[in-house]
């Protein structure tokens, strides 16, 4: 009787999203008598929410074995699918594939149910991590259809959202893809979906906005997701949100806050999600690079690379600061030559490739990078991408001696960056405009732009950029 009372309290706490309280109550009940598989699975879900990933996986393995003993292949398969996702989050792709094979074997002889849709969704997520966009579309369409047929709102929404993400990432139909993610997000915001589906869709919405360089949208959804996390005792998802928030803060010039968020994310995500932990280290490197701490930046980039995420473009910028632009150019060329990078990811690398190429007097490579940026900005005309393309074009036009056109493009880039509150990028555009004015013989105009850039860099705390701007002012004086 005592066990049933504790179990009831545990399930009540879980229903209120009081995950830590529920986990401890489930553990107390399990100490009195071994839990049934459905309760083991509920306890595992609580462990997942409070960041106890290895506890979560051990509990789900127990639940899987108990469901098999009870000859319940459907529930065993559903647990196997969750275990595959957990192993995938930790970068253990072989184990993830093995659990998906178990789920497939268990579900093949069974009539169609929601579990078949969750299997398709898991296969889509695995294909997405490998850049197989056509496979993602195939599986997400099936997941949504099965979710709709069996009244599983979470499955339908997640299938719809991941389908949209694949369309954006592959560049096939970004507008339709964004609309699909937005449609799924409506269900999350309205409270129609379960906790895990809600959290995942928030993350997808932030991710798609960041991919499209819509930093206003990404900022809005990051804050919304953070407020949602704050209402619950959640450990893992805040770390994922922190990665995006750190990137936004860096672009807006709040480097100290950005470093704090990125550092916190590396701690929160260490045992929760390997890919996002790697992204947190890469973002930490980007922030430290701007702050002038080159050694610490390179260490963060090294950790990101060891976890399987490319450390570029930040590492290339660090190589340039070390006096090795040829190595930076080689690294960027190798990354951009790979077939697994979509246009939006390329747009993050191309500005650095362009800048490095110009420093090496490689005008052909710089011009090709600027042309590609213009094409991507035409396909995805967010203000940030258009401004990035304009800044790239201005730098190449300056090198070609087409100064009036360069000034127009740089001024347009500055206006766009300032309009969306990207302080650091706006300062870079001011600095570029100052160099163009100087080449035109407009010394007073050059000094105004360079002084503005220096003031912005100093306010931001961008040490290396401020030093360069001071040098420009002194030289032009």
Detailed description of the structure:
This protein has helices at residues 2-15, 19-32, 37-49, 53-69, 73-89, 93-107, 114-129, 133-149, 153-170, 174-189, 195-211, 215-230, 236-251, 255-269, 274-291, 294-306, 314-321, 325-337, 343-359, 363-379, 383-400, 403-419, 423-440, 443-460, 463-476. It has 477 residues and is mostly helical. The chain has a domain at 238-311: Tetratricopeptide repeat domain (Serine Threonine Protein Phosphatase 5, Tetratricopeptide repeat). Helix 2 (19-32) packs antiparallel against helix 3 and helix 7 (114-129) runs antiparallel to helix 8 (133-149).
Question: Features of this protein?
Answer:
477 residues; mainly alpha; Serine Threonine Protein Phosphatase 5, Tetratricopeptide repeat; 25 helices
What share of residues are in beta strands?
under 5%
Overall geometric form:
elongated
Q: How many individual β-strands? A: 0
Mean pLDDT: 91
Q: In CATH, what is the class of the domain at 238-311?
A: Mainly Alpha
Main beta sheet strand tally, sense and closure: none
Low-confidence stretches: none
Helix content: over 70%
Annotated CATH architecture of the domain at 238-311: Alpha Horseshoe
Helix and strand topology:
Blueprint: H1 2-15, H2 19-32, H3 37-49, H4 53-69, H5 73-89, H6 93-107, H7 114-129, H8 133-149, H9 153-170, H10 174-189, H11 195-211, H12 215-230, H13 236-251, H14 255-269, H15 274-291, H16 294-306, H17 314-321, H18 325-337, H19 343-359, H20 363-379, H21 383-400, H22 403-419, H23 423-440, H24 443-460, H25 463-476
Helix pairs in contact: 1-2, 2-3, 3-4, 4-5, 5-6, 5-7, 6-7, 7-8, 7-9, 8-9, 9-10, 9-11, 10-11, 11-12, 11-13, 12-13, 13-14, 13-15, 14-15, 15-16, 15-17, 16-17, 17-18, 18-19, 19-20, 19-21, 20-21, 21-22, 21-23, 22-23, 23-24, 24-25
